[in-house]
Design goal:
Layout lengths: L15 H16 L6 E4 L3 E4 L6 H14 L1 H4 L24 H10 L19 H15 L6
Antiparallel strand pairs: 1-2
Helix pairs in contact: 2-5, 4-5
Length: 147
Amino acid sequence: MAKRKKKWVFARSRNSLLILALSISGLLLLLSGGGQIGGRDDDDGPILKKGLDGEQIRKDGLALYNANCMNCHGIEGRGTSFGPPLVHALYMPEKLSDKAFVEAVHLGTPQKHWEYGPMKPIETLSQVESAQILAYIRSRQQVPKFR
């Protein structure tokens, strides 16, 4: 009896090839370093990776901030009786890295400097959305009246 060659089957869905292509593209992006949300650039200090600092990203970040963060952190990140001001010196890039900011959003954070209690994680936001919010907050932190 002759052995049959096994046919490699990826999946039965019509979108399988698209999902595979997107997965490979995402993996290549991460491996090339372009998928990092935050980091340090030796010359410029804390930054968002190139391409995440455009006007549209900040506008999208504002909309996401208003929907997810404003109730506790207030208009323009000025704080409320429920959460601290994100434009405070403690949250400037020199003190709080981009990575720590995004981790606080996704993992929550215990009470540290304020009497508001711990921050619960916001599980509905993706990392891209968190980066957009971060871009908006970093732009607000650059306004002279907040420095």
